[in-house]
Every structure is written in C-alpha cells, then in structure tokens.
Amino acid sequence: MSTKHEQLLNYIESLPVGDKISVRQIAKELSVSEGTAYRAIKEAENRRIVSTIERVGTIRIEVKRKENFERLTFAEVVNIVDGLVLGGKSGLHKSLSKFVIGAMQVDDMMRYVDPGNLLIVGNRFKVHEHALRAGAAVLVTGGFDVPEASKRLADELELPLISTSYDTFTVATMINRAIDDQLIKKDVLLIEDIYIPKQQTAYLHHTDKVSHYRELNTETNHGGYPVVDAKDNVVGVVTARDVMDAESDELIEKVMTKNPIVISLTTSVAAASHRMVWESIDLLPVVNDANKLQGIISREDVLKALQASSRQPQNRETIDDIVKSQMTIATDDKTAVEFQVTPQMTNHFGTLSYGAFTTVITEAGSQALRSRKRVESVVENMAVYHTKPVPLDAHLKVITKVLDFSRRMAKVDVEVYNDKVLTGKALITYQIFDH
C-alpha cells in the first residue's frame, strides 16, 4: 500500500497541465495536514511537475523529457527574470520554442514571430498586441506596465504577458544562460537512464530461504540481489559471501547485509560510480522516496555508461570541459601536461580559481594513471598547497609522479609550475576501477 506522501504526489501528477494548486486546497481535498501537503508540493517542484511563481501561485506543468530540456516554460521564464505576470496566467505552463528580440519595425519584426515564441520588447504597445495575436507570449523589459486591453487580450488567448525591470540585453543573457544550464543537465547521465527496472530484476524477499538464493544464482548467474519486505521496501542485500557457510533452510534475513546503501533514480552515474568504488560495492538497489525497490544498478553497468558517455559529443561545455580542453602533453617532457589559463577559469581577482586549479591537478593525475598504468580512477582525497597566485594567460606545466600503486589505490604527487616557478603542489589518493 502506498504512503500518504506517494498518494499526494500521484494526485498532483494526475492534475491537468495548467491547473493551479495550493497547500490549503490539497490539504482539504485529500484530508491531510497543511504540513503534509506542503512537503508533497515541494517534492513535486523538485520533480519538475509543478512550478511556483511569486504573486501567481503553484501551477502544474508538463514533465520534461530529456530531449526537451532546452525548452523553458513561461513559468520558468518568470522566475528567471524576476518577472510580474500582467496577463495570460493560464498559459504559464506552456513551453516557448524560441525567443525573439523586438528591435525592428513592427512589420519586419512580425516576420520572425511565430506561435509559441517569446517576444522580448520594451513599452511598444502595438507590438505587444500584434505578437499576442500571432500566438506569441510577450516579455516587456524596463519594468513598464501595459494597457488593460493588452492584459485582457493575453487572458483571452492564454498567452503570458510578463513585465521585468531588467533591460533587453540582460534578459536575453539570463534566458540564454538558463537554456545552457538545462542543456548541461540534459547531458548529465543519471541512474534513471541506465538502471535495470524492477520488472527485469531478480530480487529476494526477507522470508525466502538461502536455497532460493542458490536457485536464483544458478538461473541468473548474478552474485548479489536486493532483499525486500512484504511492502516492497528494500531491507537488505545478499551476496555469495553472505551465504557461503549458511544452511539451505536458513532465512535470507538472517544472513543478508541489513540497511544497505541505496541510490535514487535522479542520482548522477558519476556519483554512483564514486560511491561504488569507495565502498567496494558491485550492486546498488535503486529506490524511490519511500525506499521501495525500483530496480538495480551494477558496477559494470556504471563503468560501461561512463565510458560510452565520455565518447559522446557534448551540447554545452562546463568549466571542467573547458579546463580539460586546454590540457596538452608537454612537448619537452611526455610525462608532463601543459595548460593555458583562460578568462573563464579565473576568479574576480583575475587569477586562476581554486576550482579550476583542483580540476587541473586531479585530471593530470588521472591522465598519468591512464597513460602509465592503463587504469581508470576517481579521487578519494587530496592535500593541496596553492603557493602562488596564477594570473590570466599564464602557461602552466604540470608534472606528476606515481608514488604508490596497488590493485585498489594509487598515490600521485603533482607539482604545478608557472615559468619554472612552483605555484602549487598536491598529494592525491585515487581509488582504482576494476575492468
């Protein structure tokens, strides 16, 4: 039986897109406390099935598929630009296909405005009306109000008419940044993209016997399985090591590992891989918010996914991508790496940021392990000594030395030089991936 929290989430998800909801309404309709209703609405907001807008309320929006992540809803635009909705509130759940900046004559401008667009323009009232009648929403910059007739038209056509105090250039920059952020999220590989669903997963109940494990092991050739109780909650994990000396009629709950590490569908594959290496885990149960089994993920699945994603072209570059793209093998020393500091990698003082610096040294260490030991790795811990500031356009040389190497772990010494002057040093411990 599902929990009250799950029932509330299912109810919210069943509402028509565009419906407005409130804590009081949910509490009254489902006979729960306002605190319970509030927690469910916040969870729905985290899942991107509702959007809350100041002075408007909470609106049910369409769940985004990954291929549509770059498409913002008008509700999201309102929050991005700190906007005020002047009209067309019932259309806030709709997605914009593109935005157009209104800096031309009306006739020229309207040739570029299509249904589903967002026109960004100042206090040009005739343009507002033309855009709305063409099926586009309107974002008025400069904090201007609009005539009541325009507000009524926006309400009638269910197309948002939004006002913001920012100027046109700033608004366009903010929306572009939001779309870039969405595209980066689209590129992040999540557990939900690669996990094996429960319907295709072999698992055991806590009341099963060890003999059942052995039958399942013979049938599937898997070494470990999640264990659930009568309510489908994950209560343990059982592996070959757990049952090695157990009698066949012994209960699984007596030999299983209790309170296992679990993972959610929205966890990144990179985070999962780090956890699995850190804890030496080969299998992770995937659960929902109520700890009910959704499926499993294996270390092999994670490694294959990471290797495949690293070969895919990226739509947008993160800071890590920019840093790594600047790293090249040194011409005078094939065991060293050279690196050029660009403006994106600097802090407000115009020197290399600490984040970019740590990316340089950890990636240099990883490259050393890949080239010299033919292994993949993740950082376990590091001690960093940032001895001198590194200015913009500096050309750095990073020298690595593998101090210790074992089947599970490696220690790498890293030194960073700017024009032969030591500017930073680090000792990094890496966990090694099994292949």
Tell me what you see in this structure:
- InterPro entries: CBS_dom (IPR000644), CBS_dom_sf (IPR046342), Diverse_CBS-Domain (IPR051257), DRTGG (IPR010766), HotDog_dom_sf (IPR029069), Ser_kin/Pase_Hpr-like_N_sf (IPR028979), Thioestr_dom (IPR006683), WH-like_DNA-bd_sf (IPR036388).
- By secondary structure, the protein is an alpha+beta fold.
- The protein folds into 4 domains: 4-60, Winged helix-like DNA-binding domain superfamily/Winged helix DNA-binding domain (Arc Repressor Mutant, subunit A), CATH 1.10.10.10; 66-187, Udp-n-acetylmuramoylalanyl-d-glutamate--2,6- Diaminopimelate Ligase, Chain: A, domain 1 (3-Layer(aba) Sandwich); 192-308, CBS-domain (Roll); 319-432, Hotdog Thioesterase (Thiol Ester Dehydrase, Chain A, Roll), CATH 3.10.129.10.
- The protein is built from 16 helices and 22 strands.
- The strands form 5 sheets. Strands 17-18-20-21-22-19 form a 6-stranded antiparallel beta sheet. It has a 5-stranded mixed beta sheet with strand order 4-8-7-6-5, sandwiched between helices. A 4-stranded mixed beta sheet has the order 9-16-15-14.
- β11 (224-228) and β12 form a beta hairpin.
- α6 packs parallel to α7 (148-157) and α15 (319-325) packs across α16.
